[in-house]
Each structure stands twice: as C-alpha cells, then as structure tokens.
Amino acid sequence: MDYRLHLAKRMLVNKKGSLIGAVLAVSIGILVINVNFVIFQGIYDAIIRDMSEYRFGDIYVYDEEKSTIEKSDIVLINWFERIPGVEAATPRLEASATAETRILGQQHEKFNVPVLGVDPISDIRTSTIHETVGDGQYVYARNSIVVGESVASDLGGCSQGGFFMSSGAETDPTVTGDTDTGECQPVRVGDSVKLTITDQWGIDQKKRFVVTGISGTAGGQGFDRSVIIHIDTLRDMLDRSGESRSIMVRLQESASPYDAKQIKNQFLQAFPNDNLRAETIEESAESTLSGFRSGIAMINLIGYFGMGSSAFAILTIQMMLVNSKTREIGIMRAIGARRKDILILFIMQGMIIGAMGAGAGTAMGLGYTTYAKITNMEFQGSLALEVNYNWQKIGETAFLAFILAMIASIYPSYRATKKQPVEAMRSV
Questions:
Q1: Quick one: pLDDT band at residue 188, thresholds 50, 70, 90?
Q2: Residue 57 lies in a domain
Q3: Contact 92/231 with Cβ under 8 angstroms?
Q4: Where are the strands (E) in 262-330, listed by range?
Q5: pLDDT tens string 210-269
Q6: Secondary structure (3-state) at 147
Q7: Are residues 227 and 111 located together in one domain of the fold?
Q8: Which of 86, 108, 340, 358 has CB atoms 3.0–4.6 Å from 401's, for a disulfide?
C-alpha cells in the first residue's frame, strides 16, 4: 500500500499544474458553500435574533380578528408571569403619525413615521430596544419620545425628501415652511417633536414631546426609522384605553423551544373565547421568512452544483493524467503490477486531491467565517450577521468534497486498468 501511495504522490508532483487545478476546483466548491452559509444563514439567524429581541419575543400574542387586543394587558401579562419559565411580558401598540419640529425657529418638513408605544418598565425586562438608545435615555415619562437616527436626521433637514414621506405626496411649503435653508441640524436630546395621530374616530390628535433619546440602528427592525413613546400616551391619542396591538413574552434563557410551545398551548387553553392567537418565535419565523428559507436552499443548491462541477473537473484532470502516464502504466504492468494495483494507485490520487482540496477549502471557509465574526459583518450596514462555527456543516461539506473526488477518480482508474502492457508501452 505504501509504494502505491508513494507512486501516486510522485505522479501528481510531476503534474503540478493538473494537481493545482484539481485542488482549486475542490477548494473553491467548498469555499462557495461555506461563504453562502456564513452570509445567508447568518442573515436568517440574525433576523430570527432580532425578531425575538425586538418584535416578537419568544411568544407573540395578538388578536386574529381585530387590529388590537381589547382584553386588559394587565390580565394577560400577570397570567404569563405566573408561569414557570417566563421571564417577563410587555404590551405593544403601534400607529402612524406625522412628525414635525422647529430648529432654530425654522420649521422643517413633516414626515410620516411609524410609532411604537411601549410600557417602559416591562419593556426593558422583555426586549432589548432600550439598548439601541446611544444618546440620552429610553422612554421614561408620558411626554418623552425616543427618535430613530434617520428620523432625527430627516426632521433636521439633513435628508432630501425623507424616508417617511407620505405615499408619493409632496410636502406643502405653506404648511411646513421654507425648507431650503441650507442648514442641517439633526434633532437632538432636549429638542421637541410634535406628533399628529389620527384616532379611531378620524380626529387628529396632536401632542408635543421632549426628545429624551436617539435610537441607533436596531438590527433589521428599523427602529432608527421610527419613534417610540409611552404606550399610555399613544392609547390616549388613539382613544383606545387599555388596548394593545400585541403582547411580547420573553422566556428565561434556560427555556427550550418545546417549553415555549407548551406555554403557548397553556395560554390558548386559558383564554379560549377571546379570539387570541399566540405564536412561538419559530412559528412566526416560519410564516414570515418562508421565502427567505427557500432562497437559502436555492443558494446552497447552487453551491453543491459548483462542487459537482469540481468533481467533473477532477474526472477530466484524472483522465489527462491517465493518458499522460500510459507508458508508466505499461511498464508497471510489465514488471508484475496487477490491475488492482493500478486501480488503487489512481484512486489514491483522487484521495490526495480530495484531501488537499477539502483541507484548503475548509481553511479558507474558516478564515472567511472568522473574518466575518471578528469584523461583526453587517447586511446593508444595519443587520449584524449571526455568525457561528457550524462544525457539523463544515465537516459534512469537507467529507462530501473528499468522497466526490474519490468517485470522480473511479472511471479514470478503471480506464487505466484496461491498458495492456505491450500496447501501453508502444503507444508512447
């Protein structure tokens, strides 16, 4: 066995160009799969992470028929927080508002902004939105407001036609004042912002708030493009006393997805007549990100197709090696080498190519993963990827590449065994 391995290595060394080409073919296939996994699986996991931390929690409760939950949030939250394994729960209410401000006596453009109403005390225990406030403090009073960075910029006249313009409508300069001042002054902590919200009866409700915090980008959840106020204030402006849009439930770190499903089922059994629907984060993700999962599967398929192409490249290179070593094969057969020995010799070449390609591709893939992790790689400059070393995936990909390289060597090896000694030596 040793001499055949030695001969296999020597033959490959004598054909360095072919060896390098074959190894590159395998390693690039592995690298493509690993990069796809890091980027697209990292995006998917990051979205799940942010959905859990910012929007939905581990369990998400809402009314399946109405836009708001009319049942008291105090009752629902107290029920959850009595259940073992539940860390905290908090109500949420959402609306759309027109935001405006005056800076240096100049009124800038109005913008439509999403408004999130939170209970500051329970929200801090349940979500991580408060951690996105880089300047100032989170909502703590009924007249305080946290403004996203993009909103602060737009309200200060630092953006041309802000992100939150009403559906295609141009700003009316007679209402907003002259915005062409040439000055850019983003909204800061301590400034005031006026919100106009239309209540459930169609009446505009206006209220001025003091900016207590500026929210930075929170993953892919867009809180840099929103404003956050006290939920009781939003209820008053909407004339929806005691109502919530949803209940966000956070479980303890030790809780498992099975625990979440069990608690969800207990909740639905406890409130069978309230038209309430509850979803675990896995269920929410499945319905929300089904298209994205299909995209990941398609991209992985492309990666595996690339690896299959690398196997075809190895087959071609091995055929070239067999043809170039015709005389050597004839000599080996003439001095007593069996067909089995020739077969094993060229399969060993495939094993060497597969091992080197798998090693190089895995090393490059790990290098890229490490780079993504160290640099906190982001998607579109806002969503920090959830980068993990999936050793099972890494091992499976390397093993698959190795096996494909061996399989791709079988036919050329078989062709080599069919060469007759005299004809082989005569052909060169």
A1: very high
A2: no
A3: yes
A4: 276-280
A5: 999 999 876 666 678 899 999 999 999 999 999 999 999 999 999 999 999 999 999 999
A6: strand
A7: yes
A8: 358
Give yes or no for a contact between 218 and 129, defined as CB atoms under 8 angstroms apart. yes
Name the nearest CA neighbour of 191 among 132, 107, 115, 118.
107
Looking at the fold, whether 97 and 195 belong to one and the same domain comes out as yes
| 131 vs 422, residue with greater confidence | 131
Residues 244 and 113 in one domain: yes
Residue that has been written with the tokens 């951690």 in this structure = 131
How does DSSP assign 28-93, residue by residue?
HHHHHHHHHIIIIIHHHHHHHHHIIIIIIBSEEEEESSSSSB-S-HHHHHHHHHTSTTEEEEEEEE
Would you say residue 114 lies in a domain?
A: yes
Q: Is residue 281 part of a domain?
A: no
Q: Based on the fold, state whether residues 92 and 7 are members of the same structural domain.
A: no
First vs last C-alpha separation in the chain: 28
For 382, counting Cβ atoms within 10 Å of its Cβ (0-12 exposed, 13-18 middle, 19+ buried), the class is: middle
Q: Quote the pTM value.
A: 0.69
Q: What does the pLDDT look like over 45-68, one tens digit per residue?
A: 888 888 899 989 999 999 988 999
Which tokens in the block code for residue 204?
């505009």
- Longest pairwise C-alpha distance within the chain: 100
Query: Within this chain, do residues 309 and 270 fall inside the same structural domain, yes or no?
Result: no
Separation in Å, CA 24 to CA 29, 138, 369, 374, 383: 8, 53, 19, 26, 32
For residue 138, count other CB atoms closer than 10 A to its CB. 19
**Residue 24 to residue 31: CA distance in whole angstroms:** 10
- For residue 242, the one-letter residue type is G
Residue 379 domain boundaries: 2-50+291-426
Q: Count of alpha carbons within 13 Å of 323, Cβ hemisphere only?
A: 7
Following DSSP, what letter does each residue of 265-276 receive, concatenated? HHHHHHSTTS-E
Domain limit, last residue, from 274, 307, 338: 274
Same domain, 163 and 93: yes
Look up residue 114 and give its two tokens: 């999403």
Domain count, the chain: 2
The answer to whether 409 and 318 have CB atoms below 8 angstroms apart is: yes
Q: Are residues 197 and 337 in the same domain?
A: no
